[in-house]
């Protein structure tokens, strides 16, 4: 199945803005290119400032020098760099080709987000197991290709979508977000937690429901959800407690016991760590913050 840019031709688009930089993230360049000459070389100290480059390798291989470190950029690898800076990306001598999609952006949010992402992920990231950034970038290229006068606010919205896909990767490299992506073993454990969240469930109970050894269960569960099994169980308990606080007249002590917390002080402590307020404060705020169900994300 083609991804959107593959239905287009290889080219590039540049954007200039007459008005001041009122948008916190703006697209400066976007392109799909294939190079095979060692003359392709960009030095971060020889370009204008305030720019961020994100480049995704589709085929072949390029190289990135970041300070004194060298990185290979094979297929499904991308790099992020802030210009100016002591970086240089280039096509290596003796290589066959390097095909890639790239964007150059600027703006206060662009600088802030990409700086944070580089700190978390490093300048070079493998996307082999995480294809969402490619899908977002490919779709943006196709949209600009089909409509070079695409509204700048629409473009900025797409750039934020790319940023969020990168943040998702930084948060948990292999975290899945839909039930369909969840392994049967993890789903079985979550089903047990949701049906018996008030019970004294042990990790051994969860691993047995998953059909895995305790070690492999904990490893797989954390990899796929971003939380340990016990953290996930507490998340379910606190979500249920939040619902009871908003929709019943049960005392805080009763809500705690109903959701698996034997001791009220511990319930209050865990509730505050997840929600940011005590159970009583959360209940009092029900008229000012009307939500039917509180969802807690890892």
Automatic annotation (TrEMBL):
PROSITE patterns: HTH_ARAC_FAMILY_1, HTH_ARAC_FAMILY_2. Keywords: Activator, DNA-binding, Transcription, Transcription regulation. Residues 187-285 form the HTH araC/xylS-type domain. SUPFAM superfamilies: Homeodomain-like, Regulatory protein AraC. InterPro entries: AraC-bd, AraC_XylS_family_regulators, Homeodomain-like_sf, HTH-like, HTH_AraC, HTH_AraC-typ_CS, Tscrpt_reg_AraC-type_HTH. This is HTH-type transcriptional activator RhaR. The gene is rhaR_4.
């Amino acid at each position: 199945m083609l991804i959107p840019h593959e239905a287009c031709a290889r080219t590039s688009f540049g954007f200039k803005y007459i008005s001041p930089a009122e948008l916190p993230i703006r697209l400066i360049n976007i392109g799909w290119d294939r190079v095979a000459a060692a003359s392709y070389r960009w030095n971060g100290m020889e370009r204008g400032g305030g720019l961020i480059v994100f480049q995704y390798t589709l085929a072949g291989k390029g190289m990135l020098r970041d300070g004194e470190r060298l990185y290979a950029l094979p297929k499904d690898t991308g790099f992020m760099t802030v210009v100016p800076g002591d970086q240089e990306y280039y096509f290596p001598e003796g290589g066959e080709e390097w095909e890639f999609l790239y964007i150059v952006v600027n703006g206060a949010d662009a600088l802030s987000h990409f700086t944070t992402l580089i700190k978390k992920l490093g300048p070079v990231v493998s996307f082999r197991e995480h294809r969402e950034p490619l899908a977002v970038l490919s779709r943006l290229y196709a949209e600009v290709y089909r409509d070079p006068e695409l509204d700048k606010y629409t473009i900025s919205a797409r750039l934020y979508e790319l940023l969020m896909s990168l943040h998702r990767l930084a948060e948990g490299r292999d975290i899945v977000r839909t039930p369909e992506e969840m392994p049967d073993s993890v789903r079985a454990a979550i089903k047990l937690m949701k049906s018996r969240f008030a019970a004294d469930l042990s990790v051994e109970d969860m691993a047995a429901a998953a059909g895995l050894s305790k070690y492999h269960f904990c490893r797989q569960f954390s990899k796929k959800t971003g939380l340990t099994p016990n953290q996930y169980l507490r998340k379910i308990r606190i979500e249920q407690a939040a619902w009871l606080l908003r929709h019943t007249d049960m005392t805080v002590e009763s809500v705690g016991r109903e959701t698996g917390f034997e001791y009220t002080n511990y319930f209050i402590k865990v509730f505050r760590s997840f929600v940011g307020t005590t159970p009583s404060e959360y209940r009092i705020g029900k008229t000012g913050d009307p939500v039917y169900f509180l969802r807690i994300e890892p």
